[in-house]
Amino acid sequence: MFDRITITTPAGIADYAIILTDTFDELAQAIRETGLRPDRIGLVADTNTAPIYSAAVMEVLFDICDSVTLLTVRAGEAHKTTETINSLYERMAEAHFTRKSLLVSLGGGVVGDMTGFAAATYMRGIPFVQIPTTLLSQVDASIGGKTGVDFQGYKNMIGAFHMPSLVYINIRTLRTLPAREIRSGMAEIIKAALIKDRDFYDWQKKNQPAIRAAEPAVMASMIGRACRIKQAVVENDPYEAGERKLLNYGHTIGHAIEKACHFRLTHGECVGLGMLLVNEITCRRGTLTRLEADDIQGVLKSFDLPVRPVDIDVASVIANTRSDKKREKNTIDFVVLNTIGQASISRDITEEDMRAVLESFC
Ligand code: GLY
User: Fold this and answer.
1) Which of 6, 287, 299, 314 has the fewest Cβ atoms within 10 Å of its own Cβ atom?
2) How far apart are CA 219 and CA 215, in angstroms?
3) What pTM value is reported for the model?
4) Ligand 1, from 140, 167, 246, 275: best to mutate by most atoms within 8 Å of Cβ?
5) C-alpha–C-alpha distance, residues 170 and 185, integer Å
6) 82-141, pLDDT tens digit by residue?
7) Does residue 360 sit in helix, strand or coil?
């Protein structure tokens, strides 16, 4: 094991561990340590991940429970829907899942969010364990209990906060992850450093060749640092009343681009673009220096993330921001950087500000 981080939760909810390792061998023991004694386990994996890892994980799960069912879902954001949740409920009911049953998510953020939501709602809530297999889900989506599905094309419109009982990260799963998905995760890791930790941002620049080469020790150290940033934020503000909103840096315009391009770009690619666009707005206002904005653009580029939105309809992007969950009354909560390593919320960015930078960038 490389690292173990304990997330302290609000009163009445069990604290949970993030285990960072490079094997599935420690999973059974890690689940036993949660105190859970499930009568049935449902392993939820998508059609990409199930053929690669489900057999190895099921073998370990049979060590702690006689009844383990593989619940496969179709891969991709397009299937992050209430229909998929219905099909999970159906299969759980058919297999006689009870309130003592456990769901285990094996996959990226889409699978983790759906598994968590099914767990949050089946029989008014059963426990679940996250085994994130993508870089993005390892450092962000699996931690902090946000669960849910998209609705009518809007990201995560339906959901619930439901804390996992364990987050188990096996960094070996990154070996089979396409390069584009690694880049997508890098955008969230760069984001975490930009809002909270300048030293970590400098570390990423210095270690860029080793990160690009996916050197295991460097990846483990980077994932651990990113998880600790997320830990600090979700411990201070588990239900996003304040500080947790900072994690949405780059996400308001990013989500709007994601929808406008019909998910042609990955989440991380859109978050990277969202960060650059909001940086440009703040640069023009003089609250972020051009030097820092250019430096950030250089870092995103060095990890092969796009720095210009291509073939994006500006009007659709702006329209999409209107239904963003971060919108309150007529203003949108925009996370802006004051400087590298420090962010805050701005409520006075207008559609005209967005249109101006989108038109000059697109
Ligand atoms: N992914 C953002 C959050 O967990 O709040």
Assistant:
1) 6
2) 6
3) 0.95
4) 140
5) 15
6) 999 999 999 999 999 999 999 999 999 999 999 999 999 999 999 999 999 999 999 999
7) helix
